[in-house]
Amino acid sequence: LTIGFGGGIIWQSSVDRAANMAALDAANNAALRQAVALALETSPNGRAVAVATGAERRTITPLATFITDAGEICREYLFAGRTDEIATACREDSGRWRPRVDLGRRI
Questions:
Q1: How far is it, in rounded angstroms, from Cα 101 to Cα 89?
Q2: What does pTM read for this prediction?
Q3: Which of helix, strand or coil describes residue 101?
Q4: Which of 18, 47, 60, 86 could hold 39 in an S-S bridge, CB 3.0 to 4.6 Å?
Q5: Are the C-beta atoms of 77 and 65 separated by less than 8 Å?
Q6: d(CA 19, CA 22)
Q7: Contact present, 88 and 96 (Cβ < 8 Å)
Q8: Mind giving me the DSSP string for 5-67?
Q9: Where does residue 1 rank: exposed (0-12), middle (13-18), buried (19+ CB within 10 A)?
Q10: Which residues lie closer than 8 Å to 99 by C-beta, 6 or more apart?
Q11: Contact by Cβ (8 Å): 40, 77
Q12: What is the reported pLDDT for 24?
């Protein structure tokens, strides 16, 4: 019984750690989305904005602003950190910036 009980404690502890990490990741992702939106909304092209989420340090640099044929305002930006990626996001009518995954590319 002691072995089974101890194993249960170890398993529960690992489940709790995983749940805490998932909550932290969700909070970091929300903070990152907010930082990207703020950079896209307020920074001119070429001005890097430093972003820190958890232990990670990144920069977001808007590169270009354009209007699509559908009338959407979009921005291409460099997302630099452990890896660098050029991505595009477009502003919805609600003001939320929506990533255009089809246009992103790693550099």
A1: 8
A2: 0.70
A3: helix
A4: 60
A5: no
A6: 5
A7: no
A8: HHHHHHHHHHHHHHHHHHHHHHHHHHHHHHHHHHHHHHPPTT--EEEEETTEEEEEEEEEEEE
A9: exposed
A10: 87, 88, 89
A11: yes
A12: 56
Which tokens is 60 given? 């977001």
Residue 7, classified by CB atoms within 10 Å of its CB into exposed (0-12), middle (13-18) or buried (19+), is: exposed
Query: Alpha-carbon distance 67 to 52, whole Å?
Result: 30
What pLDDT does residue 32 have? 84
One-letter amino acid of 11: W
Question: Whats the size of the chain, residue-wise?
Answer: 107
**What's the token pair of residue 61?**
């640099």
Q: Note the pLDDT of residue 57.
A: 87
